[in-house]
Amino acid sequence: MKHAAFLRLLVSLLLIAPAAAGCKRSTPTSSSGGASSGAGASYTIGMSQCNLGEPWRVQMNDDVRKAAEAHTELKMIFKDAQNDTLKQRAHVEEFVSAGVDLIIISPKEAQPLTEPVAKAVQAGIPVIVLDRRVIGDEYTCFIGADNKLIGRKAGEWIVQTLGGKGNVVELKGLMTSTPGQDRHSGFREAIKGSEINIIFEADMKWLEPDARKEMESALSRFDNIDLVYAHNDPGAHGAYLAAQAAGRADKIKFVGIDALPQEGVVYVKQGILAATFQYPTGGAEAIDMALKILQGETVPKEITLGSRVFTSENVETGGDPI
Question: Which has the closest alpha carbon to 230: 294, 150, 292?
Fold first, then answer.
């Protein structure tokens, strides 16, 4: 009897073990765009990047990753939406379903990402919004530079550099994103009242190949272009390449935004760009805020990062604050 009872107990334990393993909380896997880290970590942070086709966004992910690696209690899950809004909405929903401790998102567009971010907050998951905003205030913390100020300072620099008049091409970022809207409106405010004429404008969606294509169109239509204002450095560089191919690069000034050390700042040193205005990624600041939130501290709703301008006159000394 004792032997039969022991066998029944053994069979019961074998049946229970797999069921118990199946009850363990699932963890989202990293998709294209990043690896996870932090074995044995206490907190899992999901980060959704709108796309990794821009050097600046690659730098943002690197900054987040490096900052997180200094804290063994953090595990990062990176996802790349590949410029697909629906995919990025799904990222947020997956993070919520998996029960991550905090979400960092750099949204592709404001309107479509507002709802999933709000639902994550309503589910009790803090959300840090980086660089591009969502609509309303249902998020935990926004971190970014003042795009309108940067656009305005770029406009003031252009008015001064051109002596108050000239023909300008504006190559805009994605105009359904808040940085594109703000860099445009700030710039237009600054040139108002001057004799700066915007003879051509186009939405190059932050992408260098699109900027080059649009600039080829501008060059074919206008013989006199004094300056190109692009909403990011890849856009300004794409315009430069188009002008160089047409044999007109030395007659046009190119101005961009981002000022990555290995990109825009180098372009200024090489004489390709006349100026670039810094837009910091905020990656390290996002991890700082994430740690405070996870430890129960109150953080500011808005964190505005500073910016600098780099020109041939100041690039070797680190640029000047704007």
Answer: 150
**How many other C-beta atoms are found inside a 10 Å radius of the C-beta of residue 301?**
10
33 band by pLDDT with thresholds 50, 70 and 90: very low
Cα atoms in the 13 Å half-sphere on the side-chain side of 46: 30
How far is the C-alpha of 62 from the C-alpha of 47, rounded, in Å?
12
Q: How far apart are CA 37 and CA 219, in angstroms?
A: 48
In whole angstroms, what is the distance from residue 309 CA to residue 288 CA?
A: 26
Q: How far is CA 160 from CA 89, 190, 195, 256, in A?
A: 43, 11, 11, 16
**What is the band of 142 on the pLDDT scale with cuts at 50, 70, 90?**
very high
Rounded Cα distance, 232 and 237, in Å: 9
Q: Which amino acid is at 194?
A: S
DSSP H or E stretch at residue 302: strand 302-305
- pTM of the prediction? 0.79
Q: What Å distances lie between residue 20 and 13, 26, 40, 87, CA to CA?
A: 10, 13, 20, 32
Distance CA 66, CA 283 (A): 9
Tell me the CA distances in angstroms from 239 to 197, 248, 254, one per residue in order.
Answer: 18, 11, 8
In what order do the strands lie in the sheet containing 102-106? 74-80, 43-49, 102-106, 127-130, 141-145, 302-305
Amino acid (1-letter code) at residue 214: E
Look up residue 45 and give its amino acid. Answer: I
Q: Would you state the pLDDT for residue 205?
A: 92
**Per-residue three-class SS string for 165-232:** EEEEEEEECCCCCHHHHHHHHHHHHHHCCCEEEEEEEEECCCCHHHHHHHHHHHHHHCCCCCEEEECC
Q: Are 174 and 232 in contact (CB under 8 A)?
A: no
DSSP per-residue letters across 140-166:
SEEEEE-HHHHHHHHHHHHHHHTTTEE
